[in-house]
Write a structure and sequence with these properties.
184 residues, two-stranded antiparallel ribbon
Amino acid sequence: MGDENETWSDAFSALRTEIDSSVDAVRQLIGVIGERFRGHIDPEIDSSFNRLVEILDRSRRRSDELFGRFVSGPLYGFVKGRTLTREEYYMTLAAGLHSYTAKAAGLSTFDDFEIFNFFCYEDEERRCYINPSMEPLPPGRIRLHGGGLGEPPEELWWSKLRPEQQAFFSDYLPNIADRFKRSL
């Protein structure tokens, strides 16, 4: 398992190296078995080894695709000044390549991650995300989560919000703030 401070690029590179090492080890094992049995390897065993090499080769190709999608593609697009997709924007932001956010530009006092965390709810009974687009269920009904994740504010206690959450909802989203349960 990698170090929590390991970069995505390093993690993908390590994965690629491990896959290559696995392919080499399987090929070496095939060679040793071939020598020991003087070319009389059971066809089923030979077929299984070949299948394993094919699976590892596909894994390597898939890791290369993911490396391109999550590391080199966004980095290359950013360095070349290409318009990034939303995914690439967030990948380059998370990688620390820029700080082009509404907060950094002075357009907002919060960045997307801070706003996202204001919607995280926790009390003694549950941990969930506040979902203002979700409607409360009628009494006696059970939510099967077909209409999105999280819980509507009406099912959560205002008093259990962190003080900074209460300030955020009161100041910026008063219509949502009014929807929380208020008394225990």
